[in-house]
Amino acid sequence: MEKAEKKSINVSKILSDLWTAFKGFLPKLWQGTKTTVKRMGYAFYILFHPFDGFFDLKNDPKRRSVAGGVLWLIIYALVDLIRFQTLGYLFANQAAQLALNVPVRLMTAILPFVLWAVSNWCFSSLMDGDGKLSDIFMVTCYAILPITICNLIQIPLSHFLSSSEASIFAFIGSLGMIWGYAYVFLAMITVHQYSVGKGVGTAVLTILGMAVIAFVAILIFFLLQQVSNFFIELGTEIIFRLNE
Amino acid sequence: MKQKFIKSLIVTVLAFAVVLGSVLSASALPINNVNNSYFYNVDGVDAAAPLSFTVEKHISVVDIVPNATVTTAFVPADLCFQNGYLYVLDSKGNSVYVLDERYQPVSTIRTLTGDIPELALNSEVVEGEDGEQQEVVISSNKYALNAPQGIFVTDDGTIYISDTENQRILACDINGKVSKVLQAIKIPVLGDNYLFKPTRLVVDNVGDVQVICNGINRGIVQITSEGQFNAFFGTPDVIVSLGDRIWRNFATEEQLAQMVTYTPTEYSSLTIDRRGFIYTTISALDSAAVKALSAKSTSTTYAPVRKLSADGTDMLRRKGLSAPMGDLTWPGVKDYSPKIVDIAVDDESGRYTILDQTTGRFSTYDNDGNLLYICGGSGTSIGTFQMASALEINGDYVYVADTSNNTITVFKATPYVLSINRAAAATAEGLWAESIPLWQDVLSYNSNMYIANISLGNSEMQLAFKLLDDEVDADGMTALEHYENAMFYYDRANEKTNYSTAYVAIRTNELEKYFGLIFGAIALLIVGYIVLSIVKKQKKRKKEKAQKLAAALARQAAAAEKYNQAKGDEN
């Protein structure tokens, strides 16, 4: 009887504490979201002023927003997913649409840029670049906005165009790609204060590094799988023997 | 005691049930084995399809030769159907059987009569044991056939026989009375030692004989009706890979001698259609051809089936998802290559059937090259073959000769195939509106039949093309509605190019309909923008004016004040 009472008091206290903390957190979250979204709008300025834009994004504390970068990357992945699934009949691959795996699709959209940021950070510290990992990641995420925009334009267009006008559709797609990847490169050299030549060298090394990281990651994954399988089998064997 | 009785009763009943069940299931088995029917769907994957043919009759030597036993020599090397008779060429018994519609022999040609010249070559030079060349007389009778390999019957009933080992081509009537003998044919480029051994043959409208010969890889041999060699026809292309072509330039004589020689492949069979086009098949495909076919290439270079025009160019339409080649894949065989041994054409519709010896299956294509249906199979039961060698079609019937079982199987089309043939015929004749219910009938049998959907779409498009704007056809449909139907069918068949054409027609109409609205909206936007900017400018000007005025007034006021002040000072 006594015990039960004590327990109930504890629960209510924990709940009220949590509520107070949450109440304090809520406006902060709201304020943070508001500033992040406001700062994200700077990506549209960068669209036509890449050099100033990326420099200010990194160095101006009023403009810098890593959370904004994360959101831009998530938006990119979502738009990629929506585009894939809602493309018009003439431009879509129906068989692939039926075989859609949402997590895999999102991961394949996001992972290359995360990998790029990590790999680039590894090499930039060797090639005395100025950027931190958070800087590189943020500017990369801001730089892929053209791809997101062009992908968005492609969706209504694909419902309107016919097969003979497919070149327009393809042009917009490749425009977004070239624009976006060129900005990823520009963002990188701006952040590290590199010359173009050094930037190209670092980019090549970064791509090689991405391959190495991916290889090592897969290797570790399979090794861990083997190890875990070994212990699971060991456990099954022991349980089997004990039961015998 | 009682328990034991019940036990034995149960055992008896169970045993009885097992026996009865096995008897029943045995009787439920189909008589023929053509039950695993399939079709290649729009993705090139085999999908179940309704049965396309049933075996109507299985003809062996016992059925057509009186007093024959199963051991009687009989190998049906070639078949020909003409004027209601099925002509069977027996290369072992050296005879021709003419069968009527009930597959009873009307006539049997065993001995030839008439004025027959002596055999051109009844002796052969061979190398004896002691190395000397000896002349060996081939014991042959000019009044008999010797291992004949090909038969063709013209419209007027003249039977042309390739008397292969006697090295001659005969023309005779149904009683064996010879009217023409083509022999001692000299082909200049091949030299004097060449042995003329004709196999499959056709005779064109002019009376020229087109014949495939053993050991000739220069195409079909054209022989005039007078027995003169005319030309080689439709020589298959030689395919040499680029790497080999470069390498050959640097190779020495010895190396060249050791390398594989590239020779054109020989044709395996041929047939002729009403309009004089010659269809040929190639059974021995090289690895490049196999690779190209596995990749579903529709190039003419690697084609196992060809349709040759008078000048020898390939006219076969390959509009299907793959070139006509029989089966696209075969379970357990990588880079499966077909061995097409015979072809037959339906004169009415231009649809043709090819026979694949490795799988024992025969596939039918329409004259655009779309695969329509497949039947047959490899095996020893009725309806399957061990070595299918010759094929002939007669409307809804297909005859296949097997040279290992030594039988002829008569296949009759099922209602499913009849529905396809009807619909395809309507489409071929351009009866668009009439073909729509026929193709829908096909779809009711087999919804995987993408050709039905494509044809339906094409028919709807044709109907739409005929209509003007706002015009309504007999079914009360406008062009737009036809286009929408066409889009529906093309969508089903995943036919995007034609879908796009129909879509553009609809889109143009919509744009025309809303052109005024869209143009008006754009014009309104422009006008609005101009008006707004003018208003803004005027407002700005007014503001400036007001400011100027205010400034002037202020200046005036200041001046007045100054003046007053000065005056006051004076005062």
Describe this structure in a few short sentences.
The complex is a heterodimer of chains A (244) and B (571). Chain A is mainly α and 244 residues long.
Structure description:
- The complex is a heterodimer of chains A (244) and B (571).
- With 244 residues, chain A is mainly α.
- Chain A contains 10 helices and no strands.
- Chain A folds into 2 domains: 1-40; 43-243, no CATH class.
- In chain A, helix 6 crosses helix 10.
- The two termini of chain A are 45 Å apart.
- Chain B is of the alpha+beta class.
- In chain B, a hairpin with a 5-residue loop joins strand 14 (198-203) and strand 15.
- Chain B is elongated, with a radius of gyration of 39 Å.
- The model of chain B is unreliable at 23-34 (pLDDT under 50).
- Chain A binds chain B through residues 89-90, 94-95, 160, 162-164, and chain B through 43, 491, 494, 496-497, 499-501, 503-504, 507.
Write the layout of secondary structure elements.
The complex is a heterodimer of chains A (244) and B (571).
Chain A: H1 2-40, H2 42-46, H3 50-59, H4 66-86, H5 94-98, H6 102-126, H7 133-143, H8 145-160, H9 166-192, H10 196-243
Helix pairs in contact in A: 1-4, 3-9, 4-6, 4-7, 4-8, 6-7, 6-10, 7-9, 8-9, 9-10
Chain B: H1 2-28, E1 38-40, E2 46-48, E3 53-59, H2 61-64, E4 76-82, E5 85-90, E6 95-99, E7 105-109, E8 123-127, E9 133-137, E10 150-153, E11 159-163, E12 168-172, E13 178-183, E14 198-203, E15 209-213, E16 220-223, E17 229-233, H3 242-250, H4 253-258, E18 269-272, E19 278-281, H5 287-294, E20 305-308, E21 340-345, E22 352-356, E23 361-365, E24 371-376, E25 388-394, E26 397-402, E27 407-413, H6 415-428, H7 432-445, H8 450-466, H9 479-493, H10 496-513, H11 515-570
Antiparallel strand pairs in B: 1-2, 3-27, 4-5, 5-6, 6-7, 8-9, 10-11, 11-12, 12-13, 14-15, 15-16, 16-17, 18-19, 19-20, 21-22, 22-23, 23-24, 25-26, 26-27
Helix pairs in contact in B: 6-7, 7-8, 8-9, 9-10
